[in-house]
TrEMBL record:
Similarity annotation: Belongs to the tRNA(Ile)-lysidine synthase family.
Binding site for ATP: S36, G37, G38, A39, D40, S41
Catalyzed reaction equations: cytidine(34) in tRNA(Ile2) + L-lysine + ATP = lysidine(34) in tRNA(Ile2) + AMP + diphosphate + H(+)
EC annotation from Swiss-Prot or TrEMBL: 6.3.4.19
Gene: tilS
Domain free text: The N-terminal region contains the highly conserved SGGXDS motif, predicted to be a P-loop motif involved in ATP binding.
Domain tRNA(Ile)-lysidine synthase substrate-binding: from-to ranges: 262-325
Name of protein: tRNA(Ile)-lysidine synthase
PANTHER family named in the record: TRNA(ILE)-LYSIDINE SYNTHASE-RELATED (PTHR43033)
């Protein structure tokens, strides 16, 4: 289905089509758009303003004022005014940003909490945010640099759950240059976040230096290739998750103060599946994530056991006894 019509800018058409596809798969009477005022979220809001009424949906923008920069209240108010000019309901929420996890993570936590509350107040059944293909590529590179495995290389999903509300990313297949071009074509003036130029942030260094160097040295199409890699890894992960769910039903049982797994069954599985089962059991039972070296240390209780004692892990302890690998809470 083509969105291109005479007089319709191709960038506007691409963004609208991406939004239309996302809304078509949503059973919602109302949606919330996270609007910072930047080019990505502004192009998204404009497309939602066009597509939502056609789908019989109400649309509201929520602009989060983190209060981290001079003039943040004015910037948020300007974004809301633009949304209203587009025909959208608009709301500004001032939040307090904590310190846990660093400034970026703390701001993201506060922002998503505000979006979630905005959606609940508006009885909206979905939240839309403006992450683009470029954001996806940056996320994959950052995950690769941390060596944190396939889970981080999957990047961002097109749809995730935010405490019971679908969080949608319609623009994951759209380049950042396209969202900016869409704003220009519609006479919208985006806000350029000064934080996006601060090289103290790893993501900014990836955006401004690493990706351009890769494009220069290896040729164009690097961002698209990274996004494809994320999509393929996500497909693989979904298949693994199904295998793990089937496997766990047969080899896991609850014990006093914890959970146990059959050593024989773990040993019979490939290392990739065995390690995923170990991580899944610990995460689901004790709500902590194991690093790779911790996972491998636990796996050695299965594959290279010579009577070694319990292993202390974050939030739990792993020990082998009587053909079982048992995980119990630490006091």
């Amino acid at each position: 289905m083509s969105e291109h019509r005479p007089g319709l800018d191709p960038a506007v058409a691409e963004v609208r089509l991406a939004v239309r596809r996302a809304l078509t798969g949503t059973d919602a009477d109302a949606v919330v758009v996270g609007l910072s005022g930047g080019a990505d979220s502004l192009a998204l809001a404009a497309a939602v303003a066009f597509e939502a009424p056609k789908a019989g949906m109400r649309a509201l923008t929520v602009t989060v004022d983190h209060g981290l920069q001079p003039g943040s209240a004015e910037t948020a108010a300007a974004a809301a005014a633009t949304a209203e000019a587009l025909g959208l309901y608009a709301r500004v929420v001032r939040v307090q940003v904590g310190a846990e996890g660093g400034p970026e993570a703390a701001a993201r936590t506060a922002r998503y909490a505000a979006l979630r509350e905005g959606a609940r107040d508006a009885a909206a059944a979905a939240i839309l945010v403006g992450h683009t293909l470029d954001d996806q590529a940056e996320t994959v590179l950052l995950g690769l640099s941390r060596g944190s495995g396939a889970a981080s290389l999957q990047g961002m999903a097109a749809s995730t759950d935010l405490d019971g509300i679908p969080l949608l990313r319609p623009l994951l297949g759209v380049r950042r240059a396209t969202t900016r071009a869409a704003c220009v074509a519609q006479g919208l003036v985006p806000w350029d976040d000064p934080h996006n130029a601060e090289t103290r942030f790893a993501r900014v260094r990836v955006r401004e230096t690493v990706l351009p160097v890769l494009e220069s040295e290896l040729g164009p199409g690097i961002a698209e290739a990274l996004a494809r890699t994320a999509e393929q890894l996500r497909e693989d992960s979904e298949a693994f998750d199904e295998m793990i769910a089937e496997t766990i039903e047969d080899i896991v049982e609850h014990v006093e103060a914890g959970i146990s797994v059959s050593v024989g069954a773990l040993a019979a599985n490939p290392a990739a599946l065995r390690n995923r089962v170990i991580r899944h059991v610990v995460a689901s039972e004790f709500h902590v994530s194991l690093a790779r070296d911790q996972t491998l240390e636990v796996a050695r209780l299965v594959t290279d056991w010579s009577g070694q004692g319990p292993i202390d892990l974050p939030g739990c302890r792993a020990a082998r006894a009587g053909g079982k690998l048992t995980f119990t809470a630490r006091n």
